[in-house]
Amino acid sequence: MKYRIVDNGIEILEKNDFCPKHIFECGQIFSWEEQDSIFKVTSGNCFAKIYACNSGYFIETKFCEYFENFFDLKTDYSKIKKQLKEFDFLNNAINFGAGIRILKQDKLETIISFIISANNNIKRIKSTLAKLRHDYGEDNGEYFSFPTLDVLKEINEQYFKKIGAGYRAPYLCKTIKMLYDNSGLLHDELSSSKTLLTKLVALSGVGPKVADCVALFAYDKKDVFPVDTWIEKVFHDLFPFAKNRVQMRELLLEKFGDLSGFAQQYLFYFKRETGENII
DNA sequence: TTCCAGGAGGGGG
DNA sequence: CCCCCTCATGGA
After folding, report:
1. Which residues pair with A9 in a beta bridge?
2. Which of A120, A239, A244, A249 is the most buried (most CB within 10 A)?
3. Shortest CA distance to A227 belongs to which of A203, A201, A253, A202?
4. pTM (two decimals)
């Protein structure tokens, strides 16, 4: 995909493999809002606005290098989509979310966000995280950054409950302490997916599904397949027999291999938005 | 009123 | 290993 870094942002010069609506609505990130076709997104302590411009989009930001990596601009999504379309039953889902890109998000923020996401709905997840940034993040005028680990460590369970985290509040406090005592996981760039998942699942409030999401959305792991309630529905469309989530994950990983993470996002977005049968 | 939401922890068999 | 129950919360 053609793009160009300029003084105050990044010019996306074509629309085939980049659509902010698809990227943000597909459930991989909660720290964004859309108003009058302008998308505002925060990640860690960075911020950008994205809007249509000429024949593409403009990412207005002073954090160009961060968002070049964040939006995974160096990866060829046309090639990925072409490979995945060899699975006939994926064509509808890929065409529906053709502008999806898997983001490379802040690790700490992604762990906290997806602990909150468990058995929750996206609207309240976004609300809870926005309150957290507002109350404990740095005020940068147009946006609040995600709080640092030092700041998070001082937050008690009552506060997390107050902003809507519910029974996940103690999980958050425990995990924050674990990360504070051993922050190596937040800088892990080398572990294999299997090793990384083992480390993530050891955190409080992180089970197999949350670990897969964190690995996919923050650690650049694509050989994972988060199975949530929507993917369960997809699975029942594809296979006329019931399995538990572990078995579903194994079958889907076997089918999609190193492209599993991409396939998962197209399927999740399509199913959640349309409710239509995959086949 | 019951069910559901990007599930996980804990206990028992 | 597996199955079952509970967890906070608000919208449908």
Report:
1. A6, A60
2. A249
3. A253
4. 0.98
